[in-house]
């Protein structure tokens, strides 16, 4: 039979030979390895490329090569010496030993060739690989020495040779691990993370992050730029592109697994190795105890005992390495890349997905708004809610914020299924060997009792998680709309009601969380009870069968079952996590499989429609509720101006969307020139001669889309800066005056959605963007709706029809066709969803159709400004006979004045500070949106106190700590009782003092024998089972109280957070992006809700365990206390160093997530503009960069965690080795007590490591609480003040006395000593140029800005002295930008159900959204259905399925219902057609005849017949009087100058004076 020694030597030789083959093959191509790979001899790979400097600094490894060669030569020489000596001295019976020695020498000789190959290889990556293989060969050869030789029982000469060989192998092993892999590489100018750059030793010990960790600790801060960029396997673009390389049709789960297959395979391979390694320390412990049992009492430690003591530490080290790399592989190679990939895929899809605006089921949005929830989680309506929410913008963002996170986090632990199966199999095998199969089967049969309970509560937990995700979807939908409409909510003093609505949905979420927690408590009880039942029955049956119970059997059984318990505890959580992830995968899969925007237009030379019928994109089939633009046959002339007009809701915006390809083409064809891809435009090399690209398209949407960038960046929109063209664009769009008013010129930062701009400014900037673009086709949706009349003329003459508009196809939607008529080539008029009239203007005039197109406008002069139509109060009965003649007359009469104005603007345009000109030193532009604040240093104790206070207060947490202390004391008592039980059978096993758990493997089998159950056995057994069951109950109770405290804390913190945000000053809300607030509402509260409770429980648990073990250890030996204190001290030093860096990384991770939400929300809002400009790839690249920033911070946060775990594991292994050697050397210590002490040693190092790790988790988790508390402690608007009479204001008298207002204490006042008085029921107009203070007065009236000096008095009461809620609830304002919420017509009109349906329909009639017949649409029943025909008709998110005019009218109807005594209108009907506007003005006069009416107007015709007019200028009331007084004064006053410049002077004078002559 072949000896074991020969087998080992042969296997070692085979491994070394195979591992050397690649290097030998490489030696045949030495020439190829003497130069660097890559261009110009610079190293290049997928991660990036080296620079001259990094390659120069790269080590040539001369020292390592020399040491490796010398050590391999010396080792081979020593091996040869051993072989020769054994050959000379061996007997015939030792022939196999001699052969083994020569095989061993052959392996050394082969390794020498490996060392030569390493020394000759200059390719750094190949050299690294060969060196790593060399390290493995050295490790194998090192192991063969131990396996083949008993070193301490050989002759001294041979022992010296063997020890020298061991040292040489160890040296060679370490040297092979020190070869660096490559020089530093850079990607886009930034260094790439060095994990694949450094040596294997640095990689395995996580030492490559030392420099970054030290940098963070020393600077106490971390920015994105401080982090290296990630390698190509962890970058968004590469992950996105690799997933989409092939057209895949499988389920998303399979595709994700395939995409990360190698990493998942590696994760499972390490898991299998770890499953074996986790049992090795206990086997070593068993062997050590058996060795101690074999020793004579008082004898010195044997070599075997010492060897197994060292082996114990060695296997603990291997176990630590295995566990560390399993977690590292799971997080670094699976979790982070998977999360990044899913986020990238979702955003990329959102840029291609159909922009669905259609209505959903009628009850869906109502339930979302109300927070109602179907009790049955499987009910259809609730599924409809979830499906609907996913189609909203916030629903899409939820996929990134929640679902992608849930899937990737499950991927961290999915390998635990394999680990659990393997560990259970091994544990049960050991138990069968230890106690026999009968006791084991009896225990397992008893455990089956709890399986049905576990299964039931797993289902309960799963259902709770499903409900939780649906509740979160609904909560976030409401939160998103609340924050988007916060200004309207605050204006109407509805904060309390909206908070109640938010809290109602939040309560559904917390109910789902609490239901899950309760199910989790039962599951915890189950997995605590299972092993207790198994151990109790197994040990009892064993004791009954054998009549005795030894300490080795008892403690080893308990230890194995404890490990089995820990393993089985993962099963419920793993199962629920996988189910949750599957739900999220299906949600994302539905989104990724949704229809995309297709190229449904036909390429052609001009834009035309042939028998086309189009509808808005929808996920449902066309039905009678679908608005369709039918039978379109039109052809827009190239390079000319075309105008589309028609009544509100006639389909004008839909027609433009059809040109952009953003609709469903139901029949016919739409021909549009194909826009070239962005990459084919070469924008960087564009010149004035080739600037315009004829097929390219630019789009100005009905709602201006402005980004949070500088003024200039919003205009340039990614194009290079051409100063000449830029200045022309500013002049054409009348933006020079606005730049003078902006603090930093065109470098002024614009807030999200243009929040710090007026409506007119926003529209003109979007027009400027289109004009500056290279597009040959400009598609514009009602750009005249937000500008003054004279500015509208200016835009027409200088922008649309001027130099910048020439030779471009211009298609514009407007209610002011007469304004554009002189410049219009082609006109289209829509009516009731079809083309009423279309053709060349001259042809239409010749056929007499032009007057029909213009008949909707009451007057030619009433064109232009902030809406499709301007609100005009009724004019005189004098009208012109021909609207076309009237139009031409007005325009001809105004051209001279307009040219003079244009000349004045042009003359000063070269002096405008646009950011490109400089006169003297230029100040750094101020930031409108401030960077997100991050705390520094450790989490303040105040944050901990706030969390504890919110979670029930000091005494509640004292109860929690007591509950955990009772459990630990009970656990100690259980093992003490077990020790007493076993001691009763063996007098030799004396255990003095307190004893603690000691699993010592004593794998034995005994012959079966039946015995009677003696009274002592029954006594010990009953007490043991009783203690165990009480521990199970207490173990569940302690988690119950923790979960209770967590839920209470979540509820209180969320309430305080919501209260503060809803009542924050409006300027704070304007300057903080919604995504930043939503990040805290979502991600941070997710941590507080679901993660903090477990982390806190684990800290308390392990901290008390450390204390308990320490007390028990002191009873065994005082020396153990010394070593324990040392371990805690050194471990704490590493943990605190880690916390300094990880804390800042966690804060950065939280901060880098907000820009993702911001960009997501902004891009989804402007997706049609982005696609029209062909900028999709630009925004995808921008998002990829932001995802990479987030991914790198997330990645380093977890790498730092593994850095700590590795070092704590090393220290734990060293501690265990030292303690094992100490205990073995104590002659007076017997095997039972040594077993207990060694088990304590294993538990202690693990407990110390876990308490530090979990404290780190709590500290990092408290970052979420810190961020929530930061916003909860915002300075909110004052809620104090006096009450007012119930009927206040009864008269509506308003007095302003010396009012001084500023936006911030450090900013100059915007209103200066403003004084005037408005009598009850007066109609007051407020006019003035941009920046005159009109909007500032509105903010002061509603106390968004508090008075520095002076006061505003309403009906004798100073508004600063009363409660803010009472003030705003008694006033009303209708803003220019309508605010609607997803829901129904009813929920938008009457969100809190205060009015009857009849009253609601009457309000709709008043604003002419429905006909006088209740519920009957104005249009014919065979035509498109009126969206307001039913109060239950759906309104989509932000009212996207309505036109701008319809949204304004719905807001006006809402104001009519409230019927305030003082009403402020800010161009509230600017986007409706003229005929409807005239009717509405009559309704306003009728409805509000007993109210004080304040109208802020851009268009003077709106307020020309008002009682009085205030002319604002530089924050003061320049003039105040009746229109007649202001126009009849001597000289040219401010109002008269405005009238003269308006371009409608004749009309205004007719309104004011009637037939009189001035």
Automatic annotation (TrEMBL):
Family stated for the protein in its record: Belongs to the ABC transporter superfamily. ABCC family. Conjugate transporter (TC 3.A.1.208) subfamily.
Topology relative to the membrane: Multi-pass membrane protein
InterPro entries: AAA+_ATPase (IPR003593), ABC1_TM_dom (IPR011527), ABC1_TM_sf (IPR036640), ABC_transporter-like_ATP-bd (IPR003439), ABC_transporter-like_CS (IPR017871), ABC_transporter_C-like (IPR050173), P-loop_NTPase (IPR027417)
UniProt source species: Mytilinidion resinicola
Location of the ABC transporter domain: 607-857, 1294-1539
Transmembrane segments: 6-24, 66-85, 105-123, 130-149, 161-179, 200-218, 255-277, 298-319, 416-435, 441-458, 512-533, 539-561, 954-977, 1019-1041, 1102-1128, 1204-1224, 1231-1252
Alphabetical list of Pfam families matching this protein: ABC_membrane, ABC_tran
Ranges of residues in domain ABC transmembrane type-1: 397-580, 958-1260
Region feature Disordered, mapped onto this chain: 357-387, 856-911
Subcellular location(s) per record: Membrane
Protein name per Swiss-Prot or TrEMBL: ATP-dependent bile acid permease
Keywords, alphabetical: ATP-binding, Glycoprotein, Membrane, Nucleotide-binding, Repeat, Transmembrane, Transmembrane helix, Transport
GO cellular component, one term: cytoplasm
Domain of life: Eukaryota
GO MF, any single term: ATP binding
Compositionally biased intervals (Acidic residues): 856-868
């Amino acid at each position: 039979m072949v000896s074991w020694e020969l087998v080992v030597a042969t296997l070692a030789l085979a491994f070394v030979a195979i591992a050397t083959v690649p290097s030998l093959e490489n030696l045949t191509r030495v020439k190829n390895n003497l130069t660097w790979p890559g261009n110009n001899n610079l190293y290049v790979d997928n991660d990036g490329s080296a620079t001259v400097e990094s390659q120069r600094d790269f080590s040539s490894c001369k020292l390592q090569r020399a040491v490796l060669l010398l050590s391999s030569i010396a080792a081979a020489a020593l091996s040869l010496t051993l072989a020769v000596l054994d050959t000379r001295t061996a007997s015939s019976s030792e022939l196999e030993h001699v052969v083994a020695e020569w095989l061993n020498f052959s392996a050394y000789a082969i390794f020498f060739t490996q060392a030569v190959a390493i020394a000759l290889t200059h390719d750094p990556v190949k050299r690294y690989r060969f060196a790593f293989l060399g390290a493995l060969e050295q490790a194998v050869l090192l192991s063969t020495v131990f396996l083949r030789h008993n070193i301490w029982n050989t002759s001294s000469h041979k022992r010296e040779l063997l020890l020298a060989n061991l040292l040489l192998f160890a040296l060679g092993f370490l040297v092979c691990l020190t070869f660096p892999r490559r020089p530093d590489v850079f990607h886009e100018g930034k260094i790439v993370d060095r994990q694949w750059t450094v040596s294997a030793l640095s990689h395995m010990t996580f030492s490559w992050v030392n420099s970054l960790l030290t940098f963070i600790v020393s600077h106490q801060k971390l920015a994105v730029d401080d982090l290296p960029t990630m390698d190509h396997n962890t970058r968004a673009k590469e992950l996105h592109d690799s997933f989409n390389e092939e057209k895949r049709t499988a389920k998303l789960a399979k595709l994700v697994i395939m995409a990360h297959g190698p990493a998942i395979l590696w994760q499972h391979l390490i898991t299998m190795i770890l499953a074996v390694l986790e049992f090795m320390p206990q086997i070593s412990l068993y062997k050590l105890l058996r060795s101690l049992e074999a020793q004579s009492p008082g004898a010195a430690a044997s070599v075997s005992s010492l060897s197994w003591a060292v082996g114990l530490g060695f296997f603990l080290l291997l176990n630590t390495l295995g566990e560390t790399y399993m977690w590292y592989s799971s997080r670094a190679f699976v979790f982070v890349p998977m999360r990044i990939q899913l986020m990238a895929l979702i955003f990329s899809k959102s840029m291609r997905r159909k922009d669905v605006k259609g209505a959903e089921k009628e009850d869906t949005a109502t339930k979302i708004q109300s927070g109602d929830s179907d009790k049955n989680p499987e009910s259809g309506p609730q599924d409809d809610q979830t499906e609907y929410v996913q189609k909203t913008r916030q629903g899409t963002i939820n996929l990134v914020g929640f679902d992608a996170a849930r899937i990737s986090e499950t991927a961290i632990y999915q390998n635990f299924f394999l680990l659990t199966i393997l560990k259970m199999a091994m544990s049960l095998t050991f138990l069968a060997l230890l106690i026999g199969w009968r006791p084991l089967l009896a225990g397992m049969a008893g455990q089956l009792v709890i399986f049905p309970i576990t299964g039931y509560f797993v289902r309960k937990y799963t259902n709770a998680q499903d409900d939780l995700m649906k509740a979160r979807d609904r909560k976030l939908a409401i939160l998103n709309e609340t924050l988007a409409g916060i200004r309207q909510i605050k204006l109407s003093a509805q904060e309390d009601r909206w908070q109640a609505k938010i809290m109602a949905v939040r309560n559904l979420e917390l109910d789902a969380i609490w239901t899950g927690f309760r199910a989790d408590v039962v599951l915890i009880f189950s997995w605590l009870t299972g092993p207790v039942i198994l151990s109790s029955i197994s040990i009892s049956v064993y004791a009954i069968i054998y009549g005795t119970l030894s300490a080795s059997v008892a403690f080893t059984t308990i230890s194995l079952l404890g490990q089995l318990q820990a393993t089985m505890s993962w099963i419920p959580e793993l199962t629920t996590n996988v189910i949750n992830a599957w739900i999220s995968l299906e949600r994302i899969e539905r989104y990724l499989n949704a229809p995309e925007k297709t190229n449904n237009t036909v390429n052609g030379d001009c834009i035309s429609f042939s028998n086309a019928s189009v509808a808005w994109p929808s996920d449902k089939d066309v039905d009678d509720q679908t608005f369709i633009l039918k039978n379109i046959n039109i052809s827009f002339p190239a390079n000319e101006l075309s105008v589309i007009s028609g009544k509100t809701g006639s389909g004008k915006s839909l027609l433009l969307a059809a040109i952009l390809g953003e609709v469903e083409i139901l029949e016919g064809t739409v021909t549009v020139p194909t826009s070239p891809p962005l990459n084919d435009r070469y924008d960087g090399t564009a010149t004035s001669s080739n600037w315009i690209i004829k097929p390219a398209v630019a789009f100005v949407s009905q709602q201006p889309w402005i980004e949070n960038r500088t003024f200039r960046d919003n205009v340039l929109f990614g194009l290079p800066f051409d100063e000449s063209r830029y200045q022309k664009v500013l002049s054409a769009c009348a933006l020079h005056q606005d730049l003078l008013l902006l603090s930093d010129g065109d470098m002024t930062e614009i807030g999200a959605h243009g929040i710090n701009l007026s409506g007119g400014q926003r529209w003109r900037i979007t027009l400027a963007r289109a004009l500056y673009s290279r597009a040959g086709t400009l598609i514009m949706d009602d750009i005249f709706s937000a500008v003054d009349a004279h500015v509208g003329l200016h835009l027409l003459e200088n922008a649309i029809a001027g130099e910048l508009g020439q030779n471009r196809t211009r298609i514009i939607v407007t209610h002011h066709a007469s304004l554009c008529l002189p410049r219009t080539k082609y006109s289209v008029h829509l009516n009731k969803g079809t083309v009423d009239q279309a053709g060349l203007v001259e042809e239409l005039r010749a056929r007499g159709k032009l007057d029909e197109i213009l008949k909707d406008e009451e007057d030619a002069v009433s064109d232009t400004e902030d809406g499709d139509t301007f609100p005009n109060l009724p004019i005189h009965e004098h009208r012109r006979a021909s609207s076309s003649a009237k139009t031409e007359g007005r325009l001809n009469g105004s051209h001279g004045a307009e040219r003079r104005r244009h000349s004045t603007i042009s003359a000063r345009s070269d002096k405008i500070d646009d950011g490109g000109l400089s006169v003297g030193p230029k100040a750094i532009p101020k930031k409108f949106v401030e960077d997100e604040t991050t705390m520094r240093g450790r989490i303040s104790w105040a944050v901990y106190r706030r969390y504890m206070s919110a979670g029930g207060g000091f005494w509640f947490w004292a109860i929690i700590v007591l509950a955990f202390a009772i459990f630990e004391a009970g656990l100690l008592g259980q093992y003490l009782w077990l020790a007493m039980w076993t001691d009763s059978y063996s007098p030799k096993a004396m255990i003095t003092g307190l004893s603690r758990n000691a699993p010592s493997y004593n794998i034995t089998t005994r012959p079966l024998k039946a015995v009677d159950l003696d009274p002592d056995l029954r006594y010990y057994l009953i007490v043991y089972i009783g203690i165990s069951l009480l521990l199970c109950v207490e173990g569940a109770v302690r988690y119950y109280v923790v979960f209770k405290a967590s839920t209470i804390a979540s509820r209180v913190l969320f309430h305080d957070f919501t209260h503060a945000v809803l009542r924050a000053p409006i300027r704070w809300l304007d300057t903080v992006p919604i995504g930043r607030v939503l990040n805290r509402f979502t991600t941070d509260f997710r941590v507080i809700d679901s993660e903090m409770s477990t982390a806190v429980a684990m800290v308390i648990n392990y901290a008390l365990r450390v204390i308990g073990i320490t007390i028990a250890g002191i009873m065994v030996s005082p020396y153990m206390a010394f070593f324990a204190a040392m371990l805690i001290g050194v471990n704490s030093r590493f943990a605190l160093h880690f916390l300094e860096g990880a804390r800042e990384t966690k804060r950065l991770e939280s901060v880098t997530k907000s820009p993702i939400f911001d960009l997501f929300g902004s891009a989804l809002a402007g997706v049609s503009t982005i696609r029209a400009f062909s900028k999709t790839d630009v925004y995808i690249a921008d998002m990829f960069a932001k995802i990479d920033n987030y991914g790198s911070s997330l990645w380093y946060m977890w790498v730092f965690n593994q850095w700590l775990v590795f070092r704590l594991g090393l220290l734990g292994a060293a501690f265990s080795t030292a303690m094992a050697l100490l205990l073995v050397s104590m002659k007076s210590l017997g095997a039972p007590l040594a077993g207990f002490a060694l088990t304590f040693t294993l538990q202690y190092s693990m407990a110390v490591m876990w308490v530090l790790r979990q404290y780190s988790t709590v500290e990092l988790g408290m970052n979420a609480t810190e961020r929530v508390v930061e916003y909860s402690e915002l300075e909110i608007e004052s809620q104090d003040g006096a009450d007012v009479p119930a009927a206040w204001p009864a008269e509506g008298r308003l007095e302003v006395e010396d009012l001084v207002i500023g936006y911030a204490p450090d900013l100059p006042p915007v209103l200066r000593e403003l004084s005037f008085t408005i009598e009850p029921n007066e109609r007051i107009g407020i006019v003035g140029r941009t920046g005159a203070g009109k909007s500032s007065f509105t903010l002061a009236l509603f106390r968004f800005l508090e008075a520095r000096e002076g006061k505003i008095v309403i009906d004798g009461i100073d508004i600063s002295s009363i409660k803010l809620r009472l003030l705003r609830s008694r006033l009303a304002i209708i803003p220019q930008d309508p605010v609607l919420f997803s829901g129904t017509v009813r929920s938008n009109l009457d969100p809190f159900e205060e009015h009857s349906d009849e009253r609601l329909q009457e309000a709709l009639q008043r604003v002419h959204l429905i006909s006088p017949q209740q519920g009957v649409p104005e249009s014919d029943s065979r035509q498109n259905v009126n969206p307001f025909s039913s109060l239950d008709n759906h309104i989509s998110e932000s009212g996207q399925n309505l036109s701008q005019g319809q949204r304004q009218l719905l807001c006006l109807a809402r104001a009519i219902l409230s019927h305030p005594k003082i009403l402020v209108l800010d161009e509230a009907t600017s986007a409706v057609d003229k005929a409807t506007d005239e009717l509405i003005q009559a309704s306003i006069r009728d409805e509000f005849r007993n109210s004080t009416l304040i109208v802020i107007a851009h268009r003077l015709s709106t307020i020309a017949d008002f009682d009085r007019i205030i002319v604002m200028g530089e924050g003061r009331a320049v003039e105040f009087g009746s229109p007649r007084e202001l126009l009849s004064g001597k000289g040219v006053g401010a109002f008269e100058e405005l009238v003269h410049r308006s371009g409608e002077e004749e009309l205004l004078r007719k309104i004011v004076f009637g037939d009189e002559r001035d």
